[in-house]
Amino acid sequence: MLDTVALNKSQLESVSFGAPTANEKTHPPLLIIAGAGTGKTNTLAHKTAHLIMSGASPEKILLMTFARRASAELASRANRIVEQTLRKENKSYKPVKIEWMGTFHSIAARLLREYAGAIGLESDFSVMDKSDSADMMDVLRHELGYSKTHRRFPKKKTCLDIYSRCVNGQSALQDVLDKHFPYCSDWADELTALFKRYTEEKLEQVCLDYDDLLLYCFHMSQVKEIANEIRERFDYIMVDEYQDTNVLQAGILFGFFPDGQGLTVVGDDAQSIYGFRSANVDNILGFPDQFTPKAKVISLEQNYRSHQKILDLANTLLSESSEGYKVALYSDKKSGPLPKLVNIEDDRKQAEYIVESVLASREAGVDLKQQAVLFRSSYHSDRLELELTRRNIPYVKHGGLKFLEAAHVKDVLCMLRWADNPKHKISAYRVLKLLPGIGPKTAEKIFDYLTLHHFDFAALDSVSIGGEAKAAVISLAKLLHEIHHNRIDWNSQLTKLAEIYKPLLEESYDDHFVRYGDIEQLTEISQQYKSRERFLTELTLDPPQSSGDLAGSPHIDDDFLILSTIHSAKGQEYKNVFLLNVADGNFPNEYACGDKRAIEEERRLLNVALTRAKNELHLMQPLKYWVPEQQSWGDKHVYGGKSRFLTDQVMKCIEVIHYPRLTPNTEESLRSTKAIADIKKMVLGQWG
DNA sequence: CACCCAAACTTTTTT
DNA sequence: AGTTTGGGTG
Fold first, then answer.
1. Where are the beta strands (DSSP E) in A72-214?
2. Which of A225, A320, A565, A595 is least surrounded by CB atoms within 10 angstroms?
3. Poorest-pLDDT segment among A45-49, A57-61, A66-70
């Protein structure tokens, strides 16, 4: 009943490994090393489908993926395979629902809510997103008096990054500082105090940040009774992108499933690119040895995505690493265009070249959607975006600024969140400060008053503050009160909040018209969620990836070019790929150059970028490129040296071209030659 | 105490 | 370029 035609030998082995039979029900731990484009998702989908058809209960399957998009896709593919197979056998089919799937963070959030009672946690905790966390850091930073020191204290974002490293890597503060933030080393004591306050403050406000979700869940997994119960709930556990898990995530897995029964992890050590989030490649490399007997290992090496010339390039790049990666990819598609290294003058020419090539390919029948421009940092596409807009070429950008991070969207969201959780100080301050006449002090006063009155919004009627602001506070509090107690239907809660927000928006922004559109869109999105709580949690855990991603995307059948950071392009594939700014300082990034491990991560990042391409691959090598740093008056261009990854061996896999084509001094026409007219004089002429 | 303006400083990738 | 801090004013 297994569809063997669609799978190769290793894939088939992965799929059938440990599937339940009449007399055998064990599934020992399994590691699948799946190189780029080797049909990983397909294999996982088949495995899921196969398990279900062999009698496994869907509700006892746990699927953990890296991004929500990936998990949704996995589930729908598995569904399709089950359906197809059953149809073929003329059996009836009803859709399979895999209830337990999602990112580590979202699974953790769900488990924590369920077991909150058992671990002494309020089950109605809020989840803070990054900027909430940063805001809280900032407040405490001031409170502890660190903003007035003679030497500059790290900024809120830096503080948060340091904290996050400590938690996710379970490392000592001093180690983290020495290794990743040497310029902050002197502040160890202050940071320790700050992080302690931060942790207390979160407890007080019943908030968990991203890291807490993993941290709490990790501690929960160490509690025998709970771990046992959770192990009973799941027969099969599949974890995707295992190379990007950190110590905490691996700890959670081993806490819940110590013997690895039913556990399958999938990943590729050559695609580990989340070291900055404390991902640890050792997790995947050391996985087999965690168990006795050791876990079974299957490698997928046949690539179905790219032709051999692209793979040769990727393989050569990886072979020059000191890391010794597990797989070398090969493809049945032997021929295809040689990857190009395109020399251009600067990012302007870069944009020009890309626009021309992209349009030419479209003429030749390749949809824009099948072409992607990838880059290291999201601002790298700025110049290109200008050019695309100018030429009316539609595009969607993944990575970079998110819809939810826009100030006005955040404002409304905070109103809703405060209504949801009256103790949510960060939201409260943000919302209160929006009202005219209310600054930090008054906001504090109001919040203290609310605290004193057991967080009952109705009590704010009698708060004593200055005349003008008072009316605004009272009418806001009234609405929040009604929302908190769900006296207003969930469907119209955001609409009501938007009504209150609208005048404030008009007051502070010239482009309020556009911004209000975003608010309406937010309201629209919220309708898809069953309850306020789920809306808030899921939105912070799985924010829409791009503005085109929103509200079921009305332009779904339009054709558009893909712009994406490499990190966000993970798991994707495109017919043609353009990679921006391949130059030393960017590939590898200059901040990574100090550390050998970091450089290797840059190499893997480049590998990920290369292996997205099915057919054409253009590496753009600008002579100089634009960087936003440095003093604002100077020339913002930086001369990038040749990337150290483009060694002689690597260059043998690449064709070098120049754009515009090198032609010996054709007519320069009249540009930049000597003046034959005096424009200044002509302009002055109007005034006699 | 809120608000406005000028000066200083910054440095990627994401759940 | 955009955010954060500091100082001055009402």
1. 100-103, 126-127, 207-208
2. A225
3. A66-70
